[in-house]
User: Fold these one by one.
Assistant:
Number 1:
Amino acid sequence: MAALHVARQAISEAGWGPDELKDAALVVGTSRGNAAGWLGPWPGRRPFRLMAASNTIHSEPAAAISIEFGMCGPNQVLASGCSAGLDALGMALLMVRGGIAPRALAVAVDLPLVPLLLDNYAMSGLLAANFECNPYHPLSAGFVPGEGAAAMTLEGTGAWPQPQLLHYACNADACDPVGIPADGGRTPELLCRAMLLTQRPSALCPHATGTAVQATADPAAFNRAFPSERPTLHLLKPFVGHTIGASGLLESVILARFLRDGKLPCNLPGLHAPLGYMLPEEIVTSPGPVYKLAHGMGGHNALIAIKPS
């Protein structure tokens, strides 16, 4: 299972043993749990009758991880669509800050590349016509789907220099079952409040899926929040595709690895930039925090602020 694989990597890197794992919290983000496994079984999927029921419910990844690693702290599964991974990271942060657990593991996984799920996206007009992801190009009208899993550990005090999660927040547009408002909805409120509570971002890693509504809504939201002194934009879906519920955490893990060295990832060369914004094509130094955004269908918006080491 992809979720178990990335959880094992994160736990190993953190150096957590049985004592640390016993009271650690676990938060998993996914749009559909194990739906891909029973809608389109593949070789290697657990064939045991004992697992037939558990493989069909969203909570199975969290149960599998907690059993595998002896995690007896609180565990939750979030299914907030394309925001699920970022929400998992945010809720893990809140659990540690709120004293619910001394440490937490955030995991996100989504495996949507099965015919039935792809057909649903295609019927909704959300899939790209080709495999070129250029999210803000005037002709962009769909996303390139991908599969992915990611995990990140959080502790109240770090034993060695790591990027720091400064802030998490989310809100809802309550507007449309598929898209977000063309003017950016309530995303500017997330951005402005984050600036009040933390620091102004030097860069943004937007959701930037490539759908027509996202291509319009993102720049509109940014312009409302940043009328001047605009941050650079760093688009990761042109590299990894849109991994749906895993995307927010997967992209946060990529950002955190660059920020560990005080850097920001480059953009794929040749991408179209919204008017007034820069998309650096080289790896650059990060002088301050990065804001990561995610948007789920139905108007769920989430934001994480990450500070370099």
Number 2:
Amino acid sequence: MNESIIEVQGLVKRYGKLAAVDGVSFDVPASTTFGLLGPNGAGKTTIVKMLTGLAKPTSGRVRMFGHDMARRPNAIKRRFGHVYAAMAFFPALSALENLTFFGRFYDLSARRLKERIEETLRFVELWEERKKLVGAYSSGMKQRLGIAKALVHEPDLLLFDEATNGVDVEGTDDIRELMFDLRVQGKTAVVTSHRLDEIELLSDDIGILDEGKIVRQGSPQSIRDGLRGLLFKYIVDRAEPIQETWSHPPATVRYIGTANVVLSETDVHSLLVAQFGADTVSEVEPTFEEACLWILKHPEANGAPEAVGASG
């Protein structure tokens, strides 16, 4: 296994009596992407703030690159890049001027900084817009510039915190493509999002966060596998809705135009076959989205050892 770039152990952050993060632990091996998935307010951004040194843990430990964040923050901070929602730039300066300003905070020679600015702007496809004032950029362009800013000092680790929030559909797709390209290049990254498709696309390992705790962790496939015997999905091949005729609730039934999808917490295969015929009923695997939504809606089942998928 690759050496761990990040080691988080028993991380807690309290604001008064509120535990925004409550005993979170995970490792991120080199050249992998770890995704933190959860609803707004689950604690994702608070964790990233502690990873970046912007917030001090109430208890627990963050180690990055073999250093303790509490003891050697400066040895760590120069080695990561941080991309977050609505990144701040000087709107009256061009992209070139902004990156020159921010890049001077790192130990790069003037020549190397100039090279890196061109390399990163070309990577995010903003080189032709380099002299345009950032105040005239779209939200998607600003976030792409944010990725360039995070890359300019050649970091070993990237932290993406809700990086596509507030960006239109086209801009979101562009940013995801850049993030995917970085993953293909073998960059180590932490990605936080409440968007299931984004996390599934980008992550090798995923922690599902709810009320400050990681309630499931593993690869997308292992998370789905961990729900075997807890969540069942069937396709009923009938061209009309069956909600009104299905006589064995509770189950969630959705008509998708050409067939019906049935989600149930019990095995109802024989009941469906008895009512609609064996040739119309097939059992299929729940999607990652369906698995995650089930986990978040069933906190009483979280933490059950037989249901937790480990990515190994």
Number 3:
Amino acid sequence: MNSLLQDLRFAFRQMLRSPGFALTAVLTLALGIAANVIVFGVLDSLILRPIDVPHAEQVWQLGTTVLAYPVFSYPEARDIRDNNSVFSAVAGDVGQVFGVESNGNTSVMWGLEAGGQYFEVLGIKPALGRLLQRSDDDHPGASDAAVITWAAWKGKFGGDPNIVGKLVRINKQPYTIVGVTPEGFHGSEKIIQWEIFVPLVNRRRLKAPAGSTNGMAEGSL
């Protein structure tokens, strides 16, 4: 203990002799600690922490051995969905920005084109109405259903109590809001908070660019 006190007194005297150097050292140390805290926080929220859905340990993201990022063409995603014998549900999804028109006003919303088993994979139940179902994604034009998040319902639609059954136009195409997700749910991504969900099979109808889908599945290996 005496040795520690002597070291502290010596360090304090040195700081008084060179206050500029001491201040620089303290600031550098503080910045280094802050940077590490921020990096760990981002790492924890984006990689280490599981997505906030029921039984997250049962949700798997499918990928290929060729690409580092899990992408599939739509036919590939459809084949995996229809022919797999391992998972109880499989869904693909593609995100884009939608122009959503309601009551004469148009707003930009983060949208997710999701497979009919998307909410089934994640185990999400609706707060209002219903969510997308397998029949909504059976074939192009099978359904004009749209689901919005609780946050979008409160923010973009003013918490309209009659929101279920409301007609909106997404990229100028008519859709009917059939349900609202539970409060706090924004989709399966950790970076982007989706606001509206529509059937993936209607990509061409919404004039979405050709591209790939992400793959998710629920079950056990």
